[in-house]
Amino acid sequence: MRAFRFYLTLYRTAVLSRAEYRADFFVGVLTAVLMQLAALSFYWVVFSRTTTLGGWPAHAVLLLFALTAMSLSLSELLFNGIWQLPYYIVGGEFDRMLIYPVRSLVFILLSRPELHSIGNFVSGAAIAAFSFHLAPPPDVTYALLPVWVLCGSLVYTAMLVLLGGLSFSIVGPFVNHYFLAFQLLNASRYPAHIYPRWFRGVLLFVFPVAVPIFLPARFVLGETGWLAAVGLPVAAAVASVLVAVWFWERAVTRYQSTGS
Amino acid sequence: MSAALRAPPTFTQALRGFVSLADKTARARVAYRAAILVSLCTSALGYVVFFLVWRELYASGTASALMPQADLFSYLVVAFVLNFALSLQVEGRFGQRLRQGLIAADLLRPLGFLSFQLAQALGDLAMNLVFAVPVYAVGFFFLGPGVLPPSATALSCGVVSVGLALLVNFAISYLLVQVSFVTQTLYGVYFARAALHQAFSGVAAPLAMFPGALATWAHAMPFRHVIETPARILLGQARHSEIPGLLFGQAAWALGLLALSSAIFNAVLKRHQIQGG
How far apart are the C-alpha atoms of B204 and A147, rounded to whole Å? Predict the structure, then answer.
């Protein structure tokens, strides 16, 4: 309970700190919306030429876009601090995080929320609303949507943690390797079955970021039952988090302070 | 300060300084070769999605009416190579100089602030090309001579167009970084440019494939001159009669944006404060 209060205070302080840069906040939110619109521009190009993609209608692909945007948003809002890890290591600041009487992973995840994620969330919600307007889904979808978004966010964050753990071995002030997770998440915007088997395997089994996005869309299309649409995303999220925590605990032992 | 230091450099001195700075920037980036390589791989992964979506569309027979699949895939390879080669670090460098107050020192350099930034952008291009050329070779391996310029005219005009594309891309970045004088950080600016670039440069498809409204907006903006224009010219997909107009369009956008951003920069500097230490 004491640790929870600590995390809450840490997160609240971090949010207030980020909110200081108001102009950057507004530009950031606008930019996040622009990024989603930019991704939708390719969707527009594609669906100006066809009515289905891999047999899926436009509204189902829109739902993939929506879930991707909202999963990204929640991860950025709650767990974005992992992007700072390489800089903490290079600057020796990670020492400080190891001496707090709480888990270093949770500390670092909560230490730097990105408020522009609101732009991603609003975009994702608007796209989902439009998708549901085009083809009303089963009623239970509205109740399951937060579960899918949470699962998507956890799987994506777990991937970032796995990649972040590499920063203890490959020391340098760069985050380029994190974009692997970002690109895999973005690949979930299109139906997984249009991809070749190897790529589908990566998205559904190796880094199962597509599971909480692709399966819900299949459920909305009536291609799978609600048990699979809920059970598999939750299972993917739990497994990803467990693997990420396990990997982190081992990776952190490789940390060598800069000594400065 | 001696008279020799105060005197503006001659053209030859300035050119030598420009080339030297570009060379040093490229060499400095060698230190980050692992990061560049990872960046190339993640960009390629993102690009694979475009390929696979188009492959699906061609397989279903819904895209072939506009452009043969081989032509589109050749275009995508060249667009990817150009996109990576022209990934400049203008925002990152500018943001760092702004945060640390180093702009004050940069303004004293005899080369001039704009030339200083442009020389470094040229260094970025040189280093990126080292990594992008093997990707081009892989594209050639899979797609054959379709990815090569079909004639000497296409090659020579294409090279000129790539040079102008560098200027246009640099000018867009240089204009947008002026916002950082207000926002103090460059996250928003960087991703705003990236979003507009992704939507309107033709990086995922030539503008001929765009739906009406999107094509109209793309034609009204400079982003297409960074990717689509040089890619089409290099691949011989632009008609000969089109090429002078396209090159003129690139040059006009580059000069216009550079003039505008320089005017804004000079105006901002009059009220910008750097804390002394």
Answer: 32
Total number of domains constituting chain B: 1
Residue B3 domain-assigned (yes or no): no
Q: Do A30 and B209 touch (CB under 8 A)?
A: no
Structure tokens at B200: 């309107």
**Which residues touch A132 (CB under 8 Å, ≥6 apart)?**
A59, A141
Rounded CA gap, A231 and A242, in Å? 16
pLDDT at A188 over 50: yes
> Residue A163 corresponds to which tokens in the numbers above?
């990649």
Report pLDDT digits (tens) over A89-99: 888 888 888 88
**Neighbour-count burial for A37-64, b at 16+ CB within 10 Å, e otherwise:** bbbbbbbbbbbebeeebbebebbbbbbb
B2 inside domain: no
pLDDT (tens digit, 9 = 90+) per residue, B31-67? 777 778 888 888 888 899 999 999 999 988 876 667 8
Handedness of CA A179, A185, A187, A189 (dihedral sign): negative
User: Do the beta carbons of residue B46 and residue A176 sit within 8 Å?
Assistant: no
The C-alpha of A215 sits at a distance from chain B's nearest C-alpha, in angstroms, of: 19
- Which of A9-23, A138-152, A211-225, B251-265 is least confident? A9-23
Q: Which residues contact A3 (CB under 8 A, 6 or more apart)?
A: A101, A102, A103
Closest CA to A120 of A176, A59, A167, A74: A74
- Residue B266 lies in domain: 12-275
One-letter amino acid identity for B30? V
* B121 pLDDT more than 80: yes
ipTM, two decimals, is 0.90
Chain A residues touching residue B31 (CB < 8 angstroms): none
In chain A, what percentage of residues exceed pLDDT 90? Answer: 65
CB A212 within 8 A of CB A55: no
Position A196 confidence tier, pLDDT thresholds 50, 70, 90: very high
Q: Which residues of B touch A54 (CB under 8 A)?
A: 56
Is the Cβ pair A199, B196 closer than 8 Å? no
pLDDT number for residue B46: 87
Which two three-digit tokens encode residue A184?
A: 């895999």
Grade residue B276 by pLDDT with cuts at 50, 70 and 90. low
Enter the tokens of residue A120.
Answer: 């991603």
* Cβ atoms within 10 Å of B205's Cβ, excluding its own: 24
- Check pLDDT > 70 for residue B1: no
Among the partner-chain residues B60, B184, B200, the one whose CB lies closest to the CB of A50 is: B60
